[in-house]
């Protein structure tokens, strides 16, 4: 509901119910997408990605600038 009326680029991060981690939900020009964030091994990374971050905020800041989401 929060992203339904937003413009492309809007996003939110929430706790995942499926894995030990979070979900990054974002609005693209094609609609709303959801990416899982693995929070195991004392780091944060998008599932399917190799870049590891020491904090959730570092991951979010990096992907705000480098918009190359894993599908």
UniProtKB/TrEMBL annotation:
PROSITE patterns per record: SH2 (PS50001)
Residue stretches making up the SH2 domain: 1-71
Organism whose genome encodes this protein: Cirrhinus mrigala (Mrigala)
Name of the featured protein: SH2 domain-containing protein
Keywords assigned by UniProt, alphabetized: SH2 domain
Entries under Pfam families matching the protein: SH2
């Amino acid at each position: 509901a929060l992203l339904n009326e937003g413009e492309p680029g809007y996003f939110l991060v929430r706790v995942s119910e499926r894995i030990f981690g979070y979900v990054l939900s974002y609005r693209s020009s094609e609609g709303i997408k959801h990416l899982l964030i693995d929070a195991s091994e004392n780091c944060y990374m998008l599932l399917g990605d190799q870049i590891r971050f020491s904090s959730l905020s570092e991951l979010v800041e990096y992907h705000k600038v480098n918009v190359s989401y894993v599908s």
